Amino acid sequence: MGVYDFNVATADGGSRSLSDYEGQALLIVNVASKCGLTPQYEGLEALYRELNGRGLEILGFPCNQFMEQEPATDAEIQEFCKASYDVTFPVFSKVDVNGPDATPLYGYLRSEAPGDFGPQYGFLYDFIAKTFPDRVGTDEIKWNFTKFLVGRDGKVIRRYEPPVTPEEIRADLDTLLG
Fold this sequence. Notes:
The two termini are 24 Å apart. Helices cover 31% and strands 16% of the residues. It is globular. The longest helix has 12 residues, at 40-51. By secondary structure, the chain is an alpha+beta fold. The chain has a four-stranded mixed beta sheet, with helices on one face. A two-stranded antiparallel ribbon has the order 1-2. It has helices spanning 40-51, 74-85, 104-112, 122-131, 166-177, and strands at 7-9, 15-17, 25-31, 56-62, 147-150, 156-160. It has five helices and six strands, in the order βββαβαααββα. The protein has one domain: Glutaredoxin (3-Layer(aba) Sandwich), CATH 3.40.30. Helix 1 (40-51) links the parallel strand 3 (25-31) and strand 4 (56-62).
């Protein structure tokens, strides 16, 4: 099994098979429009514009599970992404990434790359440990802008916790894309 085995809901109410991206490297990100990390959209879009031609696809999945920082409808999210950050990479329908209603894709991503969320993430770790202590030490997504790097074979390579910026991932992407 790999990422290409999943279908996801599109923002326009349709469905898309991730097998459409077979052979490409993927960076899968849970996004939100009202988060302190929302400016990462700018870095994600820059990576997409620079590396899409080399085989990178960025897939955004809005999520409202983190202090309701993505309350908008799918249509409003699309408009926000275009108007605020000129996003051209695909942003899909809003999903749950944790809990019983988590989309199967995120269940798979979490099991394949549980993460390394710990004190090295400073303020965000302190906040999560204090506010949501049940998330620490689990494979759950801790916050918006958790990123998963997927190889061209559909296998999860690595998970990047929310404070890791798109720019900090660039070297790994260059290595993967050759």
